[in-house]
Write a structure and sequence with these properties.
mainly alpha; 3 helical TM bundles of succinate and fumarate reductases
């Protein structure tokens, strides 16, 4: 227990926690995307997927609890690192080093707040289903995820907020892969360059995949099937 406390209390320990929880969350983001894209295979496919998940509530809640723990740890530890880094600066210069940072890094805080706000709304919208009364009167019952997603994204404000949040998430991911390499102490340019480029490509593939659903709804390529 003392070892864990000392590990978390150290700067390198916090960086490892941010890196490892970030990798867990990236895995979830990819898995969730694969599930979401089943909407293009028709209502039966994605509704069966949702029904299967709800048929195993025990394991589902274990996974949810683990993801929530990782999410909270990632946010809290990132904030602690940011505060510690700011406090460690002995003085500020007229020319701030932040002007040299890439856009992805400069928008980390703002993007993180947008993504956090979106996660809360997204859970209230599709999981708790407290933001749209139509979800309680779906023709195919509780697991009519196909209709629920389409009805939800028919609202341009909801779709726009979703797209904005996914954009910031992708910015966060594109910078996060570089941060993980730095945390792991990878110095070789032969490793850093392909992993960085591959990470950025993956981040924007994730963006395209997630955004494809609300765009298809707004352009009426996806519609509720009676």
């Amino acid at each position: 227990m003392n070892f864990l406390a000392r590990f978390y209390g150290s700067s390198i320990g916090k960086k490892w926690i941010v890196a490892l929880t970030g990798l867990v969350l990236v895995g979830y983001v990819i898995g969730h995307l694969i599930g979401n894209l089943q909407i293009f295979a028709g209502p039966d496919k994605i509704n069966a997927y949702a029904a299967f998940l709800h048929s195993i509530p025990g394991p589902l809640w274990v996974v949810r609890a683990f993801l929530i723990l990782c999410f909270v740890l990632h946010i809290v530890t990132t904030i602690k690192l940011a505060v510690a880094n700011r406090a460690a600066r002995a003085q500020r210069y007229a020319y701030s080093a932040s002007t040299e940072l890439k856009p992805a890094k400069k928008t980390m805080l703002l993007g993180g707040l947008v993504v956090l706000s979106f996660v809360i709304f997204h859970l209230a919208h599709f999981t708790a289903r407290v933001t749209d009364e139509r979800f309680h009167h779906l023709p195919k019952g509780e697991y009519d995820v196909h209709s629920m997603v389409i009805l939800g994204f028919q609202n341009p404000l909801v779709a726009g907020f979703y797209i904005l949040a996914i954009f910031f998430l992708s910015m966060h991911l594109s910078h996060g892969f570089q941060s993980v390499l730095q945390t792991l102490g990878v110095q070789s340019e032969k490793v850093r360059r392909p992993v960085t480029i591959g990470g950025q490509a993956l981040a924007w593939l994730i963006f395209v995949g997630y955004v494809a659903v609300p765009v298809a709804v707004l352009t009426r390529q996806l519609q509720v099937i009676p």
